[in-house]
Amino acid sequence: MSSVTLSPASTTSPGNPSIFYRNRRTTTTTHPKCRSRFRAKPLRAALVEEARPRALPPVRGNNNINGAVSGANVSSIVPSSRDRADDIQAESKALARAINATVYSPELLKFKYASRPFKVLRRTLQILVGLGSFGLKLYIDQLQGQLEQNRRSRAIELRETFTRLGPTFVKIGQGLSTRPDLCPPEFLEELSELQDALPTFPDAEAFACIEKELGMSLDSIYSSISTSPIAAASLGQVYKAKLKYSGQLVAVKVQRPGIEEAIGLDFYLIRGLGFLINKYVDIITSDVVALIDEFARRVYQELNYVQEGQNARRFKKLYADKEDVLVPDIFWDYTSAKVLTMEWVEGVKLNEQAIIEGQGLKVLDLVNTGIQCSLRQLLEYGYFHADPHPGNLLATPEGKLAFLDFGMMSETPEEARFAIIGHVVHMVNRDYEAMARDYYALDFLSPDVDVTPIVPALRNFFDDALNSTVSELNFKTIVDGLGAVLYQYPFNVPAYYALILRSLTVLEGLALYADPNFKVLAASYPYFAKRLLTDPNPYLRDALIELLFKDGKFRWNRLENLLVQGKQDRDFAAKDALQPVLKLVLGPDGEELRSLVTKEAIRVTEAITVGTVIDTYNSIPGPLRTFIPNGNGIGPGGLSEAEMESMMELRQQVLRIWGLLRQSDNFDPSILTPILQVLQEPEARNLGGRVFGGITQRLAARLLQQVLRSPAPTRAPTL
Fold this sequence. Notes:
The protein is an alpha+beta fold. 55% of the residues lie in helices and 8% in strands.
């Protein structure tokens, strides 16, 4: 890849790695036209939004505006309040440049194209010829029994057809490339090439667009820029450049010319097809027009690069606090509706396993980072990256996972976030009635739909699937099984849910390339366990109670399993797993739960006490045990062997759980302080009194039983 040098006077110290990465494959040439236009003039420094590293401000009073600065000085630059104010001002100017950005409006499209029948007809014929010929070939393959034999060649034809039909169909193909529940593997592989292997448009048009959008000449912005794009996407193409004022390497994304006209007409036609499907195709129960509108709205949002920059800033604020996640910064001074300038990221696409492992990195570690970050996106803040295909996920040389392309984002409603976690709990418990009711909260069903007929369908699928442990389930298996249920009943799948499936299936697909036995649910379960144990949300607290209590009994094995899984999450904190539960028990609505806890506390205390007695009894030499009253029982206190085993097992479980809490990375005995404070509350004292009374009664009963069972002592014979 060559680059255009726009200013021979603008240089940056190559020994400063904090400013930019050096690409050894890039050669620099001088473009005559750009040299003739060059006019040396000072520029106001563009400030990077929360930049890390910060872009260097120009050295005032120096002809060399780049000012070579040492790495130590770069790291010591701290953004001031003035910097932040300038950032806000630069973003405001970018918003002003995007004031006329196109938005999706079905009414405007109808008004525009209803009066242009010849253009509509011409495009309709193009689409029908392209897709119709492909469909006819599939039909012939089916008649001749050659579907399997010709699958690869048909997948290539479909990719080429989507490419010829333009950006709208490329976006559709990209969506299909992440749906293993809809497409065979050969189609997934071919359509995945649509992610970045697209035809480019002329560089002259791209450079003219940059100058028009930003209102500045090319040589006043960059000291060099690649003479051809380094990547081409469905809506634009990307150049690698060096900012003139700072020497910072940046990626410059430029929108395809005439893109609004092309996708507007396509969505007008596709929407018309959606009306026909809604009216005449009974097998599809979802509102197809609504799904098309949602998809079109998101594609139009991708056309506004200022919106994409704001998406990136929000995403970084929420998720880049983790040291293994990287989100590039946005340069607002050089961003508009059709031009986006962001920090350059050196990295390798996540599906290039050999190159990644050649750098000493592990693909599965990076994928697991992506899964944990996606779970935070989907279930913690609800704001998630809806297009995580391999071209948008890079492995950096430092082992970080870099997210790119923030045009397509989505949000999970708050109620749905908790319902998803609860749904997983109900699946683990095989509580299919509760699973069916979850679909109300997930907005899959309207409140007037009776879920009773859905329960047997869920039971038939999950009873078979859950014969394996949950951690062994493949995410695609769940998607396929639920898909079969969804098609049989009046479900209306929300757009956000389809995007969630897309996000997780992509990550699982990437992991399966590296490890065919990888299971995304196994990697996700520690996060679910942590949230259940630590989140004070009432919905999740109820889900935790359902998981831990059954038929009035506490399931210590479930708590132990949750702790084992939760500890695998790096953010798990033992203190967070204790106090919220106590507050729930001692709350005003916790009477029923207090009764259960009282019973269990009595059992545990008795088990620990009796277990200690048993240990003491077993440590006594055999001959001396005959002097200890033992009634008619086998063990001390008249306990049967079965009772002793049960109590010893319960005690061991409780001690293991305490050990798990103590082994937590951030365990500190001081975490018991808030618990002691909670125990000072009136309800806690009442609960303690009930537990103490229950224990006293149980031990007194056992003592009385021992006395009544003890035989009269025999006297030694006298001589």
